[in-house]
């Protein structure tokens, strides 16, 4: 789960906690202190002048003080948090749709918080004035804000539910996979290919193959067998087994270097080609990421993307990843490793790293993951639509 989603669920949990506090702590307290007027704004939806007067008159001074103190504080924080939860939820569910739709959905949730605030402000004015001198306009205004608040709340919840259902239907039946449809994604190390490929595969329900893993597995096997020379590496490529692709040391710096070394050998590449081509043409569509997918493995891919970024940006990303997984390495070392692999991958005679002529280049240096994914998804959706 990405950091963004973790923070989102934390916000959802915090919102539920504040709601729990409102119900469990504030509710009974107001009920006691105001002789039955619990949860003022829940029960007074659309209240009349007389009803508001009755409630306010029933409040003891302690009840009013509590209502204006901790209760009002919680009752202001909760709608603000709920509006954030609803707004961000709608925003993300619409992340590949036009900005105007995302803004619209988020603003509906914000409307709920705004009218709750206005309603609370009106209640404060009522409670700080004398209940028997309340003006009819003040009560009517507060009542209107209550109605509007519930209207926006209902609308925000409805939008969220509709979006969730629409997304579930889309996932189940949408983007009916073409019988054969290949998304070829190439680019240098740590440019964001892997992340983009995984999201695209999930979104469009295509199978996904990280072809770098094949070379990493061959590299690791070759190291164990004595070296990354052509003969050893080719023998290990032929002996590759499915279990080799799930080893947990395939992302280590040693495996990265070994992968890049074995990848220069023609025999290794020829051994792996058939498997990759078969994978690419499987029924239901496939996303493959690597260095030569658009140029050598699938020159006829329906859509080719070349994902790139500056070496410095890529090194910083890989460095953060390695540190998060406990590998002790400096940024300079990672940069040197990235540049060495780039040079080897670009300058080798066999299937060098190069953008296919018909590939769309996406430079992710200054893009967020979300922006890069959205750009790639739009291109795949276009290609699918062209394909009909
Ligand atoms: O994508 P990656 O970093 O996991 O790839 C590891 C190495 O494998 C990379 O340095 C070059 C090589 N490779 C390749 O030559 N062709 C591919 N299609 C994929 C990876």
Could you describe the 3D structure shown?
It is built from 15 helices and 5 strands. The protein has about 400 residues and is an alpha/beta fold. It has 3 domains: about 170 residues, no CATH class; about 140 residues, P-loop containing nucleotide triphosphate hydrolases (Rossmann fold, 3-Layer(aba) Sandwich), CATH 3.40.50.300; about 60 residues, no CATH class. The chain has a 5-stranded parallel beta sheet, with helices on both faces. Helix 7 packs across helix 15, helix 9 packs parallel to helix 11 and helix 10 runs parallel beside helix 14.
- Spans of at least 5 consecutive residues whose pLDDT stays below 50 are 34-39
What is the typical, i.e. mean, pLDDT? 87
Helix run count: 15
The tally of beta strands, per DSSP, is 5
The topology string of helices and strands comes to HHHHHHEHEHHHHEHEHHEH
Radius of gyration: 30 Å
Number of domains: 3
Bound molecules: 2'-deoxycytidine-5'-monophosphate
Biggest sheet, strands in spatial order? 2-3-1-4-5
Shape: elongated
Question: What is the strand content?
Answer: 5-15%
Helix content: 55-70%
- Terminal Cα separation, in Å? 33 Å
Pairing-aware structural class of the strands and helices? Answer: alpha/beta
The largest β sheet comes out as:
5 strands, parallel
